[in-house]
Structure formats: structure tokens, C-alpha cells
Amino acid sequence: MKRFGMPTLIGISFLFCIVPSWLGWFSNYIQFIITLIGINIILTVSLNLINGYMGEFSVGHAAFMGVGAYTSSLLTVYLLTENPFFGKAILPEELSILIFPISLLIGGVAAALFSLLIAIPSFRTRGDYLAIVTLAVNFIFKSAIENIDAIGGPRGFMGMGKVVKAMDNLVSFPWLIFWTFLVVVFSIFIIRNFVNSTMGKSIVAIRDDEIASELMTVNTRWLKIVAFMLSCGLAGVAGGLHAHTVTFINPSSYFILQSTYILVMVYLGGMGSLSGSVISAIVFTILLELLRPLDVWRWVATPLLLIILMLFRPTGIMGSRELLDVFPKLKKYFSSLQERLTNAFIKS
Amino acid sequence: MTLDFFIQNFINAMQWGSFLALIAVGYTLVYGVLLLINFAHGDIFMVGAYTGYFIGTFLTNNFEIKLPFDLPSWVVIPLTIVATMFITALVGVAIERIAYRPLRNRGAHRLYLVITALMFGLLLEYGNLALLGASDRQFPNLFDKIIYSIGGITVTNIKIYVILLSFLIMGILWWIVQKTRWGMAMRAISYDRLAVPLMGISVDQIILFTFVLGSSMAALAGIMYGTAFPILRFNMGMLVGWQAFIAAVVGGIGSIRGAMVGGYILGFTQIFVAAFLPSTYRDLIAFVVLLLILAIKPTGLFGVPRRTKV
Fold first, then answer.
1. Chain B residues with CB inside 8 Å of A127's CB?
2. Is residue A9 predicted with pLDDT exceeding 80?
3. Is the pLDDT of residue B42 over 80?
4. Do A307 and B109 lie within an 8 Å CB cutoff?
5. Number of domains in chain B
6. A5-347 sits in which CATH class?
7. Number of H helices, E strands in chain A
8. What domain range is B57 assigned to?
């Protein structure tokens, strides 16, 4: 599994997500849902680093997502399209394929820098302090954007649809799904490696006993800031993708309700389980879509289902285990596969 | 700035701060005893306001089902308050019994309790939306509004009642927590959770009592909110509740005095910012001020740093 499982999984999901969308087998709605699932996976996995592995409690992930969303969409709209906010386009539309990923990256960096601003004072103490600070940050972000009239204020900001269309006109390819897919793979990869590295082990040590880990020469404050910035940066990239997927954003789309959904997905999957996060993001997004015919009752049914789930399984779907711990046979299968392949390789 | 203008805003801020303080007290009580951020508390406040609305309209004979006789207002007001506090306390206790206690007994992680609380908040909020619809409700007139004008200041009798009543209630609460045996047990639980059952105190009963206290405070705040701002909306719990939570933290979560002070600080900042600047800056500046207070004093104004034994 260590060597071949991941590439196989990535290849299979690539085949199932991108190729059918490319060939036009999937309707726009299904493509939208796939992108949304991808974005939710990024958000959940990144928040799991703070809330699951590090044992802190951040409730304001949507604010960082919003910073990324506004930064990247402002950039693309400013540079590439003619719009009521900034006037004429600065760069030709042909550059959109290049500019889009760069703007995503800048959105992520902006979110990470913004999170640094919050991390420096917040990690002086432990406990639920971060929860309050991030909650207040949610309010501050919404209120701040509402007061900047140049980017639409409370009315929201739009124009990202033109950028996506420009990319599609240039080369017909499901660009959004493609980039979402890449970012999903990248964030799972980077967080998995981060968690398994020495730094990640120190982070788990901070969760279990902060004082003991400090005695073992772990630089707790610095590590917390690094992990927080990484997580919020990924959230910013996810926000950029989200803004270009829904093509219309306003300050209330990145408010407490969105934060709550991310939190729910993390705890539904299980604290400190990456595969749990991925599963719960997929299940939760699809569940919300399936319950759409219920209209208002959807918002009643979802929390109710989750409360019942919590009562019967108070550790989330996966607890703190990974998929391979639950299905040891899978592990055996993959390791034997690996052995056979290695043997074959040696023989040849 | 004239003196009139200042006093006028001062009274408004006292009123708004009273609501926030009463709700913040509920957050702080539960946190002090259970170390649980009870995110459903804002929506319990909403339940209180709506229960008050239904009981109030029923007793003032404005509901579909009519009473055969009219009740005088000196009967209606206490009856509404007591019945609302009772029903809201039942809701709070029900949430404790259905969700928090089983999870606690199973030894679930503290944060799973917080998430369950969040879910219950959403459930109450959207349950209300689904059952009663998105239209706003008009809170019944329990008091006849009398407007006093002294110089350039206008004060309604409702404002005076709200401020006085909340001071009275918070005084009673302080007395319960500091002077009675139940209050002593509550403080004991937050001091040392493990030793309390050894002393023959039933932790579950004390926790129930805490929820009753917190929820009835929220109910009272709901009725007063309804009388002062008679428009009820399904998401009022979230809007006011989250702010009250932050107020509780600024005062030092777990400390009742802190919750009151925090509520008034937030109330004063919001009202005075709105008085001098466009009202859209209200939340921005209020929360920045609160964050600055927290950055300087991370445990809140009256909070005691929690010592950890190594």
C-alpha cells in the first residue's frame, strides 16, 4: 500500500472524475457536485490537522476560506475580465489558464498570512481560547468585507464565471475539476506526510500532553503556528476554488454556518483520521444533495441524523483510525501485491 | 457630544448589555460546571422568546384558541414569565438528558459534546423555520408602553423594567451560586470534578440544576428581548447568542461576575460605535475591541488561569 496504493487510488478517481466530465458524460450539475466534494475534502482534511491531530478547537475555518476566495477571485476578475468593479481587463484572456492556478496559490498565501496574524496572539494559552478568537474572526471578516463597498460589500462579488468560461473557450477541458482534483491530492499528500513526519509526531504529542512534549524539547508554540498556517493556507486555496465554482460570493457565504459544516465533517469522520475526513466529506456533501427535495426540512434532518450518529458512535465514523486499520485484509492484500511486484521486478 | 446624547445612548447600552449579560450567564454557568461550550444556548434563548410569544398571545386572547374571559395584566405578566421559564428550562434539560449525558457517560471526547451542542442549535433553529415559517412574528404587548421625556432624553418604561429586572435576577443568581448549598456544589464541581461524587453529591443532579438555571435566564432574556424589540425571527438565537458567548469569554468564562461585565462591555461598545459611526461598523469595531482585550488578558477580565498539575 505504501508504494502502490496511493497512485492506484488517485488513478482510479482521476478516471472516474475527470475523464467523464471531459468527454461530456456528466451533466453540469454532477460536475458541480464533484467539485464541491473535492473542496469539502480539502477543507475537512485541513481542519482535521488543527482540530483532530493538534487537539485545538478552531471554529472559524470559513473566514480563512473567505480570505482565499476573495483574494483569488479579485485577482482573476481584475486581471482577466472586463467588469463593473475595476473596468477593462489588464491581461489578454489567453493567459487565464496560467493566471488561475497562480491566483489560487496567492489566495492560499493570503489566507496563511491572515492566519499568522491570529495565530501569534492565540497560541499563548491553551484551552478554548482559539475557539473564541476564530469565532470573533468570523464576525470581523464578514463585517470588514461588508464595509468595503468597492468589492460589492454585502451585495457580493461576481465575475468569476467569465474567467472559467475563458479557460474553457481556450482549451475545452474541465479545468475546475482538474484543479480541484490536483489540490485534493496535494493536500491529502502533504498533510499525510506532515502528520507522519517528526513535526507531525510532535503535534500529536502536543495534543496528548503539552507540558510533557515541551519537556521533550518540542517547540510547541512554533509548531502550532506552522500547523495552523498550513491548514488555513489550504483552506484559502479551497476558498478560491469554491469562489470560481459558485461564481458568486458574498460575505455571508463564509460565515458561521459554513464553519459549522466544516466542523461537522471533521467530527463526523473522526478526529485525527484522514480517510475518515475524506469519507465524511463525500458522505456529507452527497447527503445534503440527496435531501434537497425535503426543502427546509433538510436543515432539520441533517443535524438530527448527526446527533443520532453521535449518540451511537461518539467517535465519528472512523475514530482516530485510518482505512487500513479497519480493513487489515486490505493492508495484507496490498502488501502481498507489493511483495509480488517487487519479486517480479527482482526476477526480471 | 452633549450630555443628553450620552445619557440616551447610555440607557440604550444598558438595555442591550442586559440581554447579552443574561444570555452570557447561561454560557458561563454550563462552562463552569461541565467545561462544555453549550453552543445550543443561543437557540434556547430563541426558544424562550418564541415560547413567551405563544404564551403571551394566548393569555392576552390574541391566539386562535380563545380563553372565555380576559385576564388582567397583573396576572398575565407573571404567568407568562413563569410558564416560559418553566418550558424553556424543560427544553434545556431535555437536551442535557437526550444528548449530553449519554455522551458524557460513554466518555466521549469533550469536543464531540461541543459538536452535538452545535447540532442541537441548528436543529432548534431550522426546526423553528420549518414549523413556523420564515415570516417574522410580532411579540404581544404585555406592558402598555409609557414614554417619559426628561429634557432631551426619552426613556420608555420597558427599558427601565428590563434594566432593573436583569440586575435583580443577576443578584439572585449570584446569591444562589455563592450562598446556597446547590451553588456550593456547582462551584465544587468546577473546582474538582472527581472529588465531588465522593462527598455524596450527585453530579448529574447538579448539572441538571445548572441547565435549569441557565435556560430560565435565557427564557427571561427572550421575553425581555421580545418586549423591547417586538420582532421575532428564527435566526435571532444565532445572531444574539454568538455575541453573548464572546461576551462571556471576555469577562472570563466560568465566572458569573465576568459574564455580566462582559455583556455590558459588548453592549456599550456596540451601541456607542453605532452612535458615532455608520452602524455597519458596529460588529467590526466591537469584536476588534474584544479581541484586543483578550490579547492583553487571555483568561478574560475575571477569569482565573487554570492550573495544570504535572
1. 306
2. no
3. yes
4. no
5. 1
6. mainly alpha
7. 15, 2
8. 21-143+152-234
